[in-house]
Amino acid sequence: MSAGAAPRLHPAWVVAGVTFLVLMTSAATRATIGVLMVPLEQEFGWSRATLSVAASVGIFLYGLAGPFCAAIALAVGVRRVMLAAMLGLSAAVALATRIDAPWQLVGLWGLVVGAGTGMTANVLGSLVVIAANIAVDLVYMWLDPRIEIR
């Protein structure tokens, strides 16, 4: 490396950064139903119980999908599962602007967002860290400089 050249960013940091962004986007999408509950009540006149059904279905699928999606990620690859989850979440958020019936809210925010956020749950984040062993070494080295990278 020449004296004037900037040090290159290690690819493991890119993987860790993208995983962080995907997990944060997924968590923010999952939590949005709580923020939108009162405006949806006021706009459409739906009861809080109706809105809670969509939130409950989403939380249920979030917990149920995690282990299955981890197995799928091991079979087809983490990138494909993350891409599918983010495409599903993007489609659900885009289609949410067209919701005008409670069943549509349950279908989109309950089923699609619940399954999509379950795909990017902590299990998927753990798989990325395991797959990118170098990232683990770099994070450990950053936390404790006395640790040497193998």
Label the structural class.
Answer: mainly alpha
Report the end-to-end length measured between terminal Cα atoms: 21 Å
Strand content: under 5%
Pattern of helices and strands? HHHHHH
Number of domains: 1
Low-confidence stretches: none
Q: How many DSSP helices?
A: 6
Helix content: over 70%
Outline type: elongated
Largest sheet: none
Instruction: Round the mean pLDDT to the nearest integer and report it.
Output: 82
Counting DSSP E segments of at least 2 residues, the number of strands comes to 0
State Rg.
19 Å
Notes on the protein architecture:
The protein has 150 residues and is mostly helical. The chain has one domain. The protein has six helices and no strands.
Brief overview:
With 150 residues, the chain is an all-alpha fold. It has helices spanning 11-44, 48-76, 78-95, 102-119, 122-131, 133-143.
List the helices and strands and how they pair.
Layout (H helix, E strand, L loop, with lengths): L10 H34 L3 H29 L1 H18 L6 H18 L2 H10 L1 H11 L7
Keywords:
single chain; 150 residues; mainly alpha; elongated
